[in-house]
Amino acid sequence: MNTAQPVSGAPAQTGPAPAGSVPGQQPPQKPRRRVLTSLGFQIFIYFGGWWDVAYYILNILVFVYKGLQLPYPGRNFAMEFSFSWLWILIEAPRLFLASKGNKTESVGPIIFSCILAMPLLAMYVYFVAFQTYVLRIDQLLNGIAIAFVALQVVFAILTTVRFILATRFT
Is the Manganese keyword given for this protein (predicted)? Predict the structure, then answer.
């Protein structure tokens, strides 16, 4: 048996020991920091993004159907169709900010995403109640969309409170 190697079979330490440590002891480890991000919130953001893709495609198809089959006043159709484009300009940054805030444990982006959720909810309510023609598919699509945004806002508020409490009492 070679006396230079320990009995455990692990190779002997050949370099100098780190400064301030006792030979044969493990170096002190940093205390672990709790991860505060919300998995539930991130799941709703992820599946909300996929729902948004399906919603947008179906919403455009419904508008095409309405434009071709129903006697739509010209101005109303143009305004309601442009809301679909405005919707995507708000929804994509809102989901990005919510995801970024959750992953980086930052309160600011999450709060801003909640602020951006308010005009989206107003658009969904408009699409459900105040459009020129409201079809059952409109009610279904916008009802699901309202549920997704509402759940995301609830998770955003809970996550924000968790981040604030963790930094306040640490």
Answer: no
